[in-house]
Input
Amino acid sequence: MAALHFPPGVLLRAQGAGLGVKAAIFDVDGVLTDGTLYVGEHGEAFKPFSVLDGHGLKLLARGGIEPLVISGRDSAGVRRRLADLGVAHAVLGAGDKLAAATALLAPLGLDWTEVAAIGDDWPDLPLLARVAFAAAPPGAHAEVRAAAHYVTAAAAGAGAAREFCDLLLTASGRYAALLDAACGGGGHTRDVGASA
Output
């Protein structure tokens, strides 16, 4: 039995319009990272990523929900991280996130009613206003939190993206099967009376 529980109204909203959520858009700075930029003396930027969040994106893809990444910044480090995670659809250095999202969704044959998104600042608002399900980390700008259907308990760069992935997988009915597979098919139960 899964330990995660989300409010029924949130899960219903996260199911999308009829056909369900088939893709999820992630911002990088302030969602997949804590928003901190470490800049070296030669201008190179370093960003901390959470392994927990990364595994969430992999699970999302395994569960049939395509992870999409749209960021206003481009860097070799982000490209490397996305490649390591197997994220096939990304637009980095996007000046207009709405145009970037539209360009990603068209070849996938997806409508906004089949998409979820998580963002943290004003450039994400056009996406959050159109998707079936919008989320934000707790440190997101106030306008973004107000536009979100769900604000994660976990912070950006420290589990917010994973929480969003888990919520979407739960809403789609795929979370339990993925958890069972991770446990070797033996279920996810524990005898609380047994001694360790």
